[in-house]
Amino acid sequence: MDCRKYQSQFNSYLDRDLSPTEREKLQFHLSECLLCYRQWSSLQKTHELLRQLPTLDPPEHLSAVVMARLKDRGFHQPLKFLTTLPRWLPMGVGVALFLLISVALWQVMPSQYPWQSLFPSSRKNVTTSIGPSEQPQEGITIRRGDSASPVPVMVLRVKDFSRAHQALESMLRSFDKPMPQKRGANPSFHSDSAQLIDVQVPGQRFPHLLRELDKIGHLDHSEVEMHRLANSQQKKSISIRIVIIGNGSDVEIRRLPK
Amino acid sequence: MDRRSLAQKSSSVKHKEEQLLVDRCQQGDRDSFAKLMQLHQRQIYNFTYRMLGSAEEAEDLTQDIFIAVFKGIKSFRGEAKFSTWLYRIALNQTRNRIKYLARRNFFAKRTKREGLEEDMGLETPETLPDSGPTPEQWAMTKDLAAQVQECLNQMGRQAQQILILRDVQGFSYEELSEMLSLKPGTVKSRLHRARNALHQCLAGKLE
């Protein structure tokens, strides 16, 4: 037990880190215990070997090579104007660039956040996810809002947008329960010549709605979509999205693949 | 004036001189950097050599360390000693180099003793002064040094660096603690483990 205790002090003894009392005790033990003395002697030799490792001279050309490398990399003379620039400048430039890119992206990206509805005119692109897959074209697209569930989209092309819009509003009011959904909060597209309206109608009254819409303007919807809607007539209510677009509107619809 | 106060005065002068060189380097003075490098290159070269066990790699790494020092010298604020700051860079660069070399099987490819003795930088017996050790003694020393280096190469990086910094280069526990960002107690226990590992390795070789 004593041996183990003394052996654990060997390293501190090497570092001259023992108190005088501890040192005396250890020295006394080493003079009496051959096993510990051999171990200590061996450790001490190892330590000595390490300390006596020869110090090597670095190659003579070392500093010349380093200076040459610094010169090659243009580190030899710092540009004075760079040293006088304030330290915050790189960070400031970074923040400015970040803001610039963010604003640019915000302008280009379609509506995804509620506050973007405050600036409808800044948002010209809306995209639908219905219809056959076509390659997106240059121009304006219509996106299906933030709704998580797929909503059938019907495009209604009209000659006079404002009149058609009014007719559509009154027609929707004539239904028993065809309440426009989340109109204010709807992140749908809105401009002077185009609007995106979400409506919910009783399933039985859906054919009537289609007929009314056909009266207001040219209803443009794919047969596939109609088929799907016809099958769902048994449902209590049907949600659809109507995109009403006036003639001469610069709004185009891009039908993107699902 | 006794010897200790003389040594302290000399150290203080050296420190002031070094600080002056650092200040000039921070203003982009190349000549001062060259002088600063002259002051430290021997120690750094030896450190890298002991860490890598190859003169060529040590030279290359020492160059990289000093280039990194030049690049980063403006960030040196004098809170620690310059040598401590320099060694922190050296330790980082060495760690990266060891990783790089390990990926390329540098350490595995090295044959057991290949080139080691040539790398040791020892003079050959023919060039030794008459008063020095005999060729037999010299061969023994050289062989032992090679064995020690071989054991160092076989150790883990942390153990290796702590042994070299403390037992070969003679840094204090406080300095090691700052360089390695470790508590002095941790430094001590790691050093003790490393010494024991080296002891075992050498005992195995010299039996």
Describe the structure.
The complex is a heterodimer of chains A (258) and B (207). With 258 residues, chain A is of the alpha+beta class. Among the domains of chain A are: 2-51, no CATH class; 124-246, no CATH class. Chain A contains ten helices and four strands. In chain A, helix 3 (20-32) crosses helix 4 and helix 8 (161-174) packs antiparallel against helix 9. Mean pLDDT of chain A is 71; it is low at 120-149 and 178-188. Chain B is mainly α and 207 residues long. Chain B is built from ten helices and no strands. Chain B is globular, with a radius of gyration of 19 Å. Chain B has a domain at 12-110: RNA polymerase sigma factor, region 2, helix turn helix motif (Rna Polymerase Sigma Factor, Chain: A). The chains are: A alpha+beta (258), B mainly alpha (207).
What fold name stands as the CATH topology of the domain at 12-110 in chain B? Rna Polymerase Sigma Factor, Chain: A
- The parts of chain B where pLDDT drops under 50 for at least 5 residues are 112-133
Shape of chain B: globular
For the sheet with most strands of chain A, the description reads: 4 strands, mixed
Number of strands of chain A: 4
Mean pLDDT of chain B: 81
Indicate the multimeric state.
heterodimer
Strand content of chain A: 5-15%
What is the first-to-last residue Cα distance of chain B? 50 Å
**What value does the Rg of chain A take, in angstroms?**
41 Å
Strand content of chain B: under 5%
Query: Structural class given helices, strands, pairing of chain B?
Result: mainly alpha
Please estimate the helix content of chain B.
over 70%
CATH architecture of the domain at 12-110 in chain B: Orthogonal Bundle
Name of the CATH first level of the domain at 12-110 in chain B: Mainly Alpha
Number of helices of chain B: 10
* Topology order of chain A in helix (H) and strand (E) letters: HHHHHHHEHEHEHE
Strand arrangement within the widest β-sheet of chain A reads: 2-4-1-3
Number of strands of chain B: 0
